[in-house]
Amino acid sequence: MSMPTSPNAPRLIVIGNGMVGHHLIEQLIACGAPRDYAITVFGEERHIAYDRVHLSEYFSGRDADSLALASADDYAAHGIDLRLHDTVTAIDRDANEVVTESGRHPYDRLVLATGSYPFVPPIPGNDREKCLVYRTLDDLDAIREAAEDATTGVVVGGGLLGLEAANALRGLNLDTAVVEFAPRLMPMQVDAEGGTLLREKIEALGVQVLTGRATQHIEAGETSFHRMVFQDDKMLETDLIVFSAGIRPRDQLARDCALEIGERGGVVIDDRCLTSDPSILAVGEVALWQESIFGLVAPGYQMAKVAAATLTEGDATFTGADMSTKLKLLGVDVGAIGDAHGERTPGARTFRYLDEIKQEYRKLVVSSDGKKLLGAMLVGDNATYDTLMQYYANGLALPQDPASLILPSSEGAPTLGPDALPDTATLCSCHNVTKGDVCATLDAGALDLASIKGETKASTGCGGCAALLKSVVDHELAARGVEVDQSICEHFAYTRQELYSLVRVEGIKTFSELIEKHGTAAGHGLGSSSAPKLGSSSAPRLGCDICKPAVTSILAACFNEPITDAAHVPLQDTNDTFMANMQKNGTYSVVPRIPGGEVTPEKLIVLGEVGKKYGLYTKITGGQRVDLFGAQLHQLPDIWGELIEAGFETGHAYGKATRTVKSCVGSTWCRYGVQDSVGMAIHLEERYKGLRSPHKLKFAVSGCTRECAEAQSKDVGMIATENGWNLYVCGNGGMRPRHGELFATDLDDEQLIRTIDRFLMFYIRTADRLQRTSVWRENLEGGLDYLKDVVLDDSLGLGDELETQMQHIIDTYECEWANTLSDPEKLKRFRTFVNDDSPDPDIIATEERGQLRPA
Amino acid sequence: MNAATAIDNDVTWQTLCSKTDLVAHSGVAARLDGTDTQVALLYLPGQTPEVYAVDNHDPFSNANVIARGIVGDIKGEPVIASPLYKQHFRLNDGVCVEDESVHLRTWEVKMEDDDVMIKA
């Protein structure tokens, strides 16, 4: 939470809530501006700022919420007044007021972040029905609606945005064509050879490509809704047309109030993002800096950062931005760095590599002496982009033979190690994080990749720099002599993953065997003063509260012997030992499993009766079950005797294990449901109950896209589609919320189960101790693509093994409470005192709202 | 209460429980005869000593839970970790590793036949 703004604080209004407008708010929050300003944001759209870069995913399973960059609550938490769907119609500079549909709003400082609009070429007929643009979520809804009775679609414009739009039309199963005025696709980024290759690759995907075509007019078609007539009287019929032929700055508000505007549009700004009226700033695609509009998100973010500094008396300046880009359009890699065409520097020389079989094209533009990289162009494979970008951005001296950088890797291209990068090297261009920033964060105490990402935001934009960032972090830690000790604790010089392999490969089934065979030698690290009474030869190696529970979890995942067996009992945290959750006064809470949150009235009555009989405080959990608090140790067996009698099983609320599968009511009752989400949730919960893992596991199943079960905040989330299930993974609520990522779409039940089996078992094998799936995913080298390769495409050939191991766990499931109740020896542990049957006299309860709670 | 008392060199030894009441490599709680004191008995078979007794009361949480912690060692020194906030206490002298100004009381324990006896 932020400090409250003073009532007399100057008023700051931001017009526009797109990606850059939102980034400005983030930067302002980072500068503490909500203390100094009363901030109001006007957004024209219904939606809060969303990720426009990934807009085409809207048609492949992502919805508005998952594209959202923030929630209204985030704004409110910082006291920022967010007004969506309220269009600003005028700026009254004399009165210092902004006029919107809802009224007049005074400002002291104003920021224009209105972005751009799609350019629609002045072609007669361009205003026909089903002539659309591709820019906003509402545009996409309109395209989807128009596509309902369409079979073909045309995109006018073969640039970056045009190909994105073509991808979207393919996502709607339309036969798609791209019409480009220039003689090749992406004329800004690629040359003729690259363009030819790009065209071939895109045509191979079934997208028709027409270049060098100027549309003369659009009229009613004979076989389709539209007919497009070109300059040579050739024609193309289509049901739907999307214009995506470039953008224009949305500068009308600025024009109307007579701010300085560039000749070809755009609000003129200086290096501090100030317009010709110093109380007004502009950022993003509406802003014109040194006669350039920057149509990419990274420069917009840089402007946002500068504007935030300007507003808070910081001293940052905008110095222009590099327009290098790395893209994957329709699945085809395209990269352009610096002067990719070699037109801007006299005497520039080029190296080119073209492979028409693999369909890869790479070009280097170098200085006349061959020492510096001026630009580069990549089609078909962006693997070399990061390295080339570093040579370019940091002016590094090229290797003796620059061609080695673009030849196939078997030719042994020298790799550019992280040590060769200067501190000024930009690692993450989305958030403008340099190697120096990363080093400073390391110096301030960050010790792993996840905390570097959290502190600097590096690699949290497009994610393209993840591998580079990791190599820099690893290298820097090693270079400054920080020994990155991966040992789980002082008793084992191994990581959790290594211990897992040892257990599995050697079939080790107990902690004592593992510590005997693989524990650090007795006396290892024994300080001479810390244990004076113990010689190193007799020093016990007992393990500790870190390795013991971790190893127990590994043993459970490999062999699934009952955790209640004598060999495992002393290894676990009290919650696992006594199969209940210890609360702050030493009593326990009890959570029986309620699969999918479905419970009969009879069973619900039993929960009520048990709660009443034992005087337990009763609360509904977030995971759709019932928590009964306040049981003393000796009461647990009696309570569970009654619960098991009524048909309940243990809920593992105490374990690093499968917790719950939350569900909405689904197609059984809900008029919107498209699949039986409750049935699936129960099936999944029954399947994975008892599975122990590095940390707790939460699931949810939603029966339709309204997502009432909040599946995208779970480790594993399912959202029903007309055709099956969309699977999301690695989401998290809690302290650091993370949206789950769409992992696979339209899976049938069998595919879904197989995918989850593999995903979970791969996580269990490779995660660190107490690492949730979200953090595991963020530290996973290769990211989501790698995870998909392993799980969906079985790139490691592990699929069968992972499924078999999961099946073993499922086949050996046993309710731990039923197991305990059947064994008098195990029940002996459930005594508050071994020499007295009375309860703990120090536990005192008081009544509140009709229930007992600790006094 | 099943505690019996015996006199041994002017010191009172109290029988707390039987050896079969103990849980190997872990703890159980017992009450000291005639007092409000609860002790945690920690049983480390094969070590010397084999049984430790410390306060069951956790000074950080004010709950009687120490017996339900995990027994382990820090650099060879046997310790128990509080199950609530995870501070470690040395079994030999009761001192808290994270904050040496805090400690648990400790008692001597011996085994006679199957009896677990505490000097208190």
TrEMBL record, chain B:
Identify the residues that the record assigns to the Rieske-like [2Fe-2S] domain, covering every copy: 12-119
Annotated PROSITE patterns: NIRD
InterPro entries, sorted? NirD, Rieske-like_NirD, Rieske_2Fe-2S_sf
Instruction: Tell me the superkingdom of the source.
Output: Bacteria
Q: Which UniProt keywords apply?
A: Nitrate assimilation, Oxidoreductase
Specify one Pfam family: Rieske_2
CDD domains (UniProt xref): Rieske_NirD
Q: Which NCBIfam families match?
A: nirD_assim_sml
The protein's name in its UniProt record: Nitrite reductase small subunit NirD
Record the organism.
Answer: Chromohalobacter beijerinckii
The organism's lineage is: Bacteria, Pseudomonadati, Pseudomonadota, Gammaproteobacteria, Oceanospirillales
Q: What gene name does this entry carry?
A: nirD
